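Sequence in, structure out. First:
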Amino acid sequence: MSEAQSVVDRSPKARIGNVFADEFKILQHLSRGDVADTFLAEFIDPPTQVWIKICRAEFSQDRAQAERLLREARAAAAVLHANVLEVLDADIAPEGDVYVVTEAFEGEDLGLLLRRTGRLPWPRVRAIALQIAEGLQAAHEAGVIHRAIKPGNVLLGADDLVKVADFGMVAVEEVTQDREAGTVVLGDAVHFIAPEQALGEAVDQRSDIYSLGVLMYTLLSGRVPFFGRPTQVTMQHKFAAAAALGSVAPEAEIPPLVEALVLKAMSKRREDRYQDMSALVAALQQIDEEGARAGGGKAKAAARKQQPTTDSAMFYSLEALQTALGQTQDPQAQIDILRKMEKALTQLAGGAGARRGRPGSSGSRRASTTPTTTWRPSTSAPSSGRSWYRRTASTPSSRATGR
């Protein structure tokens, strides 16, 4: 780097109004992330508004980091899906800054929403999580792993339209470098990374499934499952059990089936999680907005045929509730947990009507002949965004082109 370059002011405020990379006029500083600052900019010819993420100097000047960030961003450009923020370009500016250009999107990230609301109800979490999962499914089919699913990387627009952003935009040092006590922020990636990622092992699509599970946990309860310095949080991801959602946010009355789904996604061993994103999409669709199995009587009949194995979602729920019961000394909390366990056991048995069924009645004997419902991912599209670039053929079921 030349001496002239070294004295250039690259602070976000200094960039406003200047031309960047000979092509973009910087209009506004939008946010500061773990790796980059995001700006609203205008492409000079033709005049078009875009977002530019300019990586901070410590990442741009580190060759290995710069190459990794560019590689991840260029791979993400292959993912064309209604729930993925489109990457338009990724390069190194003449000034030496690594940058990524994306579509401009009107909305806010989930981190801001959580700070304002505290936590979200299950119906809204379900709708948001389904869109995230469908966007990630398209990315995985294109061979792209996100690696950093967290509130700050999920954007929410009009009518809760979701855009997953910042593929691969995670600071590697984040999981090993201690910070001062009390400065850990909710949106830090270390709170959401999978155990294998925290330990520097190879990641795959099941790592994104774990992160999405932690994100759902956070949206439902209003808090992350583990606290402390980054190194402490890393070890907790690997070895500590997350507190049951029912004990963390009892006032939320999170349904047992929902808690079971979240805990399965957050399994320590990746072999125990949903094995691909399509399986998580299907699991989300099988639970309705009330937290019960979708499909009514047919789903209950199918549930009667199931046994509580370690692969059963209901077993995960009962296991979590039993753990919570042993952790609390509050009599009222114990009563609430016991009621949830009773409800879970009732659902496992196929409903209260099945338990009371009489010979020859419409109870469990007839239900046992009902065929099992086959669940398929929905193909309905969310409302289209207002972005300048949007292709009219893009829907949540769109699949990314190959690299």
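Second:
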Amino acid sequence: MPNGAQALMKTLVDAGIDVCFTNPGTSEMHFVAALDSEPKMRAVLALFEGVATGAADGYARMADKPAATLLHLGCGLGNGLANLHNARKGKVPVVNIVGDHATYHTRFDAQLQSDIETVARNVSPGFVRTSQSTAALSRDAADAIVAPAQVATRSCRPSVLGQGGVPAVVPPSRPVTALRRAGLRSATLLGGRALREPSLLAAAQIAAHSGVKLLAETFPTRLGAGCVSALPRPSWALRTLTTCPGRCQGPVSFLPIPTRRAPGPTPRPPPRQPALARPGADGAVPAWPGRRPRSP
């Protein structure tokens, strides 16, 4: 019977996660041994947690699938927060596995003892769990993998990783259909996977038919290159348009602007903003069967 770490590893591999960016410590040795014994999982050792989390963010963006990290305690997670913040803002799926002190050792408040869940909520506001048993270990991992386009963090103790466990099955995702919006002075605001080449081709066909504007979120996770003319970024001029967010939120300014009456969100928001897809939904569509539009 596999131990908890091996069951967790098989859950990740069976779900298609095949790269884990690591900066482990002694609390994670069971998982490190499971990494060595699983040929389908590639372990990438980083000398700093910020490198591990940044690499996981970039890999998940380009591979279009979740990446895993292995970090040591709350301090190690804290060292990687900056790039996990970028992943959270980019709606990038990253699964953080954070080791914790053994249960019997926490009462001593050792030098590296910290509240991991509090640290994790900075970048994982929607998914933070501490696996308290081997039965919950793989189930929590499966829930983290299917969490919609976000950074999911779960911590586990050596006693949980070392005991017997059973892998969990990750259910398949359900993609959202193609986006469509028609109307005078209207725009469709695209983000996430809706900015990949197949979805952009479909959006270009819709825009050509209906006359809507195509807008991209200010900081897209990835942007399909060379297939559609450059998309204008949302700006203060959006207040004159009726927008239809497709898998992203409406535009928000970086900082309050003293010269404007309504800092933060765009002033005088558009009267109608029906959401075609939420940020966590899969806005990708199959490859468009027609010819690739030429860039101007």
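Remark: The chain has a mean pLDDT of 76.
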